[in-house]
Specification:
The chain is mostly helical. The protein is built from eight helices and no strands. Helix 2 packs parallel to helix 8 and helix 3 packs across helix 5. The protein is globular, with a radius of gyration of 19 Å.
Length: 184
């Protein structure tokens, strides 16, 4: 069993899990923003929510695997404390610390979403809005710490995901319903 684990292409798996996690989280985030658009109604709304949850759950699972494989990697092995405690990595502690914090943020988002009915709407929404800085931390972690980030395709991927996210968010702000004014 040990030979099987040691024989795994861990460095490639770590990169694949990290990139796939980022793309799934981006897609989940995009659907989460679309879900809040006022024209998303009827049968589409629950379908979008279900897909949003599947994508973010899958992305979070792959992010966990991305971190866990680093412990058994023989190319650049990490200790558990370097993965679990932000800014403790032997290399690029800030960049890897951002990855750790974004992973903890994902776990917080998933747990609070599971308990959404037990939380006040305001508290849940405040926590859920942390998805934006968490996504930015994950993007910065991947872009600056990723060994493939200098490849043109990867630069395009990060650029496109950020541009699409900003466009969706901008559209959401523009389509926001105006607040009702209280009259005396």
């Amino acid at each position: 069993m040990t030979d099987l684990i040691i024989g795994l292409p861990t460095w490639q798996l770590t990169r694949i899990f990290g990139i796939a996690a980022y793309l799934l989280l981006f897609a989940g985030m995009a659907l989460g923003i679309l879900y809040s658009y006022p024209f998303v109604k009827g049968k589409r709304k629950p379908a979008i929510y279900k897909t949003h949850m599947r994508l973010t759950n899958s992305g979070s699972l792959l992010a966990l695997l991305h971190a866990a494989v680093l412990v058994i990697d023989t190319y650049t092995p990490f200790e558990w404390k370097e993965i679990l405690i932000p800014f403790m990595a032997h290399e690029h502690p800030v960049l890897y610390g951002m990855g750790t914090i974004s992973l903890y943020g994902l776990i917080l988002l998933l747990l609070t979403s599971d308990f959404r009915q037990k939380l006040s709407k305001g508290l849940w929404l405040t926590i859920h809005l942390l998805a934006y800085p968490i996504f930015m931390l994950a993007m910065a972690h991947g872009f600056f710490a990723g060994t493939d980030s200098q490849l043109p395709a990867m630069k395009w991927m990060y650029g496109a995901t950020i541009a699409i996210t900003l466009m969706l968010l901008g559209g959401r702000v523009l389509l926001r319903k105006p607040l009702r004014r209280m009259t005396a």
